Structures are given as C-alpha cells and as structure tokens.
Amino acid sequence: MNIAITLLIMIFISKAIMANKITRPASLVKQGNLTLYATSLKVSELLSPNFYTIDRLDPENSEKGFQRVLNKARANKLAKYIVAGQENKDAFLPTSIFMATNKNIPFNPSNNTIEIDINEIGTLNVVDGQHRVEGLKMAAEKDPRVLEFEVPVNIAINLPEIAQMSHFLIVNTTQKSIDEGLAQKIRARLTTSIGLVDIPTLPKWISNLIERGDDLKALQFVVFLNKDKESPWLNKIRMANDDNSDGSINQKSFVKIIKKYVLVANNPIVDTEDEDRQHRIFLNYWKAITNIIGTDEPTVLFKYNGVELFCKFCVPFFSKMVNMPDYKVSTMQTLLDHVFDNVEGDAAGVGHTVFWVKGSTASGLNTTALHKINNEMVKALHIASTIKKEMAV
To answer: How confident is the model at residue 14 (pLDDT cuts 50, 70, 90)?
Structure first.
C-alpha cells in the first residue's frame, strides 16, 4: 500500500474518530423479542477504530467465541471484485452484514435515524458477514475510493452474547451451512446455558439436540482424549477452527461416531458411571487397544475406520467388562487379547499391527466390511467369556 493511499485512509478514519458518533438513517424492525435496525454504513465508518469485533471460536477453549476461522482467500476474492467495480461504479453488495450489541442504540422516530456512539456501547459484534467485512477492508487498503462505498447492515440491540451465538447458529444452519464441528461446539455451549440465561427460540431440530445434550457429552469425550497427557489420542484430533492441527481425524467425525455408538442406552458405562469415570474408562479402552496394536506411523488406527470400528465394538465389550474385577488397562488388554486370538473370517488379523498399516487391509474397509468385522469380534468376545471368569476368581 503506497503512502498516498495510506494518508487518504488515515484522513477518512480520523474524521470518524473526531465525530465519535455515527448518525445513520434506519428502519426500526421488530421480530418477536428481537429489535433490529436496518441501515447502511460507509466502509470508512465500518473501519473506524473499535467499531466492530469478530468473536472467533478458540479451538483450545470451547467456551470462547463462536465464529468460524476467516478464509482469507474468500475475502480477497471479494476485495478484488469491489476494487474492479470502482472505476465504472458497478460493484454491488446487496447482502446485509448482521451486527449486534448487548447495549441499546437510541432511535429517533421523528427523522428515522440512529446514533451509534462507540464510547457508550462499545464495539459491535459481527454475527454474520465477517468475510464481507474483511473483503471490504482489503479493498479499501488497495483503493481509498472504497471508503465511500455503502453496505447494508442489520444491527440487533440489547442482545446478550449467548443470544448472538444462537442467532449465528440459526442463520448458518437454516439459511446456509457452516462446518458441523463448529455447530457441535455451539450446541454444546447452549446445552450448558439451558435454565441459566434466556435463549432465543430455535428451530425444533436444533432445540432437540441442545436439550438432549449429546453434542456436549460427545464433545467432552473427544476433548478429554485429545488433551490427556497419557492418551494415545493426544493432539491427534483436529478440533473445530484449528487450521494448524495435523490431526488424523476431525472433531466433527469423532463426535458423530461417539453419539452414534457410545452414547447409547445399552452402554453400561454411560448408564452407571459418572462422566469423569466414563471418560477414563473410555481412555483405558483405547490404551489397551494401542498397547496391542501399537501407535507407530504409518497407521490408520487413528483415522475414521479405526474410530468407527472400536467405538462400534465398545458397547458389547463394556457389557462384558461390567462383570470383570475392574476397568484397568491391564484387565481390558487381557480380554482384548483373547478377542483378537479367537477372531475369524473377515476380522482375522484385526489385532495385529500390520492390519492397520497405511495401505494395508484397514485402509480399504467400507461400512459393510467394518460391520462384518465387528460381528466377528463380538463372536470372539463370547468365546473369550470363560477368561473373565478365571480372572474374577
């Protein structure tokens, strides 16, 4: 960016700073308990210091933020389009940016205007439209004429953070899609907020998921496996919004599998154990598996097929474990050894390292094949049932 452009941008923004307040024509919109102002902002106003913030989800802390990671390539594509349209004034961006504040913004009904005083209300949160905002910012840095470009904006007032997060979920699951891993984390946070704060009316399918709490429960399993220092899964799971992770499976898939196979009515540890013990028993299960099969790369044990198979097998396995002396790794490992020794048919070799080497048998398994292998393992589990009696003596 050359010096002349920098100076022009500084002039525009300094004017916004001096004004302290932005007055814009607006329409007052009531949607149930939600109050919105439909208005427009110049890019220079949008880029005023401390005017907006984007509350992005922290992949290391599910309690912070809710926005997805910024896709700079997507924002840059918009920036190029906006800049190219400045010469002939044919660039247009009709889709509104959704912003929100938990404070009130005064509305003047006599002239239909709002007055935004950032010193009073603090920064506005970009609930939906962060790529448009970033694209406009990039465009203004390339061409100062963009600073005069106006964009439609809907501003929600008196909206608490939990409600802002809920509206982000509604917009991005009913009107367009977001990564399911991000949606899982938001639904998990909403589950913990039930009965504590007011949550906006959500689509029935979303509210059902939140009330059941399966996303929260499954996510807790995944976070525990991914963070425990003794876990074979340590840092192997790619959490939502974590673009820097080289995990072998993403949070979205792991949570989905746990909800499908682990958090079920016939799982004895879910029915009888508290959550902390559930997590530790499940960790011991994976320790026992990896003690036998190994963790050396290249392995696909930590990819989708490994997770699918051993989560599917865990319920019959834990059903046998309830009558064992304990849930120690050594106890589980003894039972697994006998399962692997007795397994036949399509599952032969499933307990050996070579079966899971990348490019070997496990790499090419489909859902049908995994189902057959699981059935063979369950048969072998019953053959091994005499071992548990010997251990209990």
So the answer is: low
Domain contains 199: no
The one-character DSSP state at 358 is T
Domain-located, residue 114: yes
Residue 348 lies in a domain: yes
Render pLDDT for 214-271 as a digit per residue (tens, 0 to 9).
888 999 999 999 999 999 999 999 987 676 667 789 988 999 999 999 999 999 999 8
- Measured between alpha carbons, how far is 81 from 143 in angstroms, rounded to an integer? 12
The answer to whether the beta carbons of residues 316 and 310 sit under 8 Å apart is: no
Residue 108 CA to residue 120 CA, distance in Å, equals 17
Single-letter code of the amino acid located at 218: A
Residue in 378, 250, 263, 342 with CA at minimum distance from that of residue 304: 250
DSSP state, residue 357: B
The one-letter amino acid code at 171 reads V
CB of 37 closer than 8 Å to CB of 22: no
* Three-state SS annotation for 46-59: HCCCCCEECCECEC
For residue 181, what pLDDT is reported?
67
Q: How many CA atoms, within 13 angstroms, populate the side-chain half-sphere of residue 296?
A: 8
Split into its structural domains, the chain has a count of: 2
Verify that 143 and 239 share a domain, yes or no: no
Return the residue matching tokens 């997770």.
307
Task: Check residue 8 and give its pLDDT.
Answer: 56
Handedness of CA 44, 46, 47, 51 (dihedral sign): positive
Look up tokens 């009888």; give the residue: 272
Which residue range forms the structural domain that includes residue 146? 3-159
Cis peptide before 298 (omega within 30 of 0): yes
Q: 220 to each of 157, 173, 192, 206, 259, how far by Cα in Å?
A: 33, 23, 12, 19, 11
Indicate the pTM of the whole model.
0.61
